[in-house]
Design goal:
about 450 residues; Rossmann fold; 4 domains; 5-stranded parallel beta sheet; 18 strands
Length: about 450
Amino acid sequence: MKHRGEILVCEDDPGLLALTRDILEADGHRVDVASSPRQALALLEERPYDLLLADMLLPGVSGIDLLLQVKQRWCETEVIIMTGHGDIDTAVRAIKEGAYDYVTKPLHAEKFAIDIQKALERKRLSEDLERLRRRTESRCSLGSLVGRSPAMLSLYGQIEQVAPASTTVIILGESGTGKEVTAREVHNHSSRRGGPFIAVSCATIPSTLLESELFGWTRGAFTGASASRAGLFEAADGGTLLLDEIVAATTRAQLGLLRVLQEREVRRIGSTESRKVDVRVIAATNADLEKAIEEGAFRTDLYYRLNGVTLRLPPLRERPEDIPLLAEHFLCRYHDKLRRPARTLSPRAQELLCGYHWPGNVRELEHVIERAAIFASREIVRPRDLPESIQHARSGFAAIGLGPLEDIERNHIRDVLLHTNGNKLKAARILRIPRASLYRRIEKYRLEVEPQSAAKI
């Protein structure tokens, strides 16, 4: 569905100003024009605008200077910079300073209209945020995503905002947080839900094959190419393509991705013919993208093309209140899958799960619950049904050194005694305290570790 917007155009070339106005009005938008930054600012004072289109080179000040003033005073107005110089560095700087995107002159009417729609879609998304947050307050899931923590409720709202738009999405999160599940929910809540959803990990495909997998090839394009084959972009036409571990993509593959995102067409390896594709691209990674850009491993211009919206997935340790809900969800799943009696968690098992730090996040929790569902001899999952690493783990707070001082000291002494297998002389040396002081603390905290036995603590 097209969004009709209130748009202000600032351009000092009368011919281009008239042409831009005609294109926008033909698409149903309400348009005001300004031939100078001063005039544009005066119009902004009078009424709100959804979008400002500003030339890079304007009399008196640059388009970036105007951008900075607009973002400072009317942060809700989206800005697109127009440049006739193809200056990528300056255009990227404009995006860093808050511009939604840039377009190059001369304008291509069809692509220009799409860029305008994307900017207006983003504006509508931000306006709907509060309403969607209120709707998600009582939720505990969204499709395959489970949790009722504030972080997850916020994520559900963001997904419902992003899904109906055609905006590209970057999903950031540690390994095991559910990046592919999140991408599927974006797809399932979009108008593309009837089309294909294809996920590919750029890290698992050899670098020499990634381009051909993504873009396809023609017969004879390389040794072994006995027949032409469509790539994943063509296979995902009308749907969504998830590029997981996007940072692992080669420089050549990144350049090809940039071209597809800009031109919305793909060219098979060995072909001179381009094919139009209608694919929503979602990229995901557990890497630090900004660091990858600084190190030259990831293209800046590709990052800004992909980064229409960023969804950040919280690690499980930051939402411990969701652990019991997730555990019960997985127990129900494996009850159906294994055809065994329904199981539930004992209070102590639940406490242990909530206190564990979960380096593998939701994926690790799922594997733990699957194991418990298999090995539990009763309908209640008890601590002994959990892995030893969880049975003997310190709580999440203690693991990072937070809590009452005496608890921290007790846990530290206990860990050192475990490390020395109960040898108090070695423990005192490691702790750098007199042996007599160690004995007093062992008595105070009722600690005792006998040689060859770490299970008595």
